[in-house]
Write a structure and sequence with these properties.
7 strands
Amino acid sequence: MKICVFLSAADLDDRYTRPAREFAELLGKGGHTLVWGGSESGLMKVVADGVQESGGRLVGVSVDFLAAKARTNADEMVIARDLAERKALLLEKADAVVIMVGGTGTLDEATEILELKKHGKHDKPVVLLNTAGFYDGLRQQFQRMEDEGFLPIPLADLVFFAKDGVGALAHLEEWSGLQ
């Protein structure tokens, strides 16, 4: 399975890097392909290293103004013109999406992917990997949106919240088995 992972390129502490590395190793050992932003820094590097060292493939989609930070030994690297093209290519190249911890860029990617799913523009599973409770507030907000009628489809059909990488991958593998 080709799994797009949206995540931070920042250097983060062990409470985020350790679970990210564990998830990456699960992907690699499972023979999956990581589709990611292509960066050779921060959490993006941690995940790419873990996947590659565990036998998985790497498909990066960087963007023109960040091309100097792109990983040089990925199995495939595409350089998009801008962030909009990058997001479209990431989704196009993936069978599923996992959203890990990140800042405004990750949040932008997450909301766009969910909005496209809400409107039926893709039917790929989306998992929010809620490492260390990072997305508890967002989960609460999504629940409020559903409870108050802002979501035209059930929240459970839109996104799956996983507390760890094992749960995230199990959900994706279950989904792929249903396809």
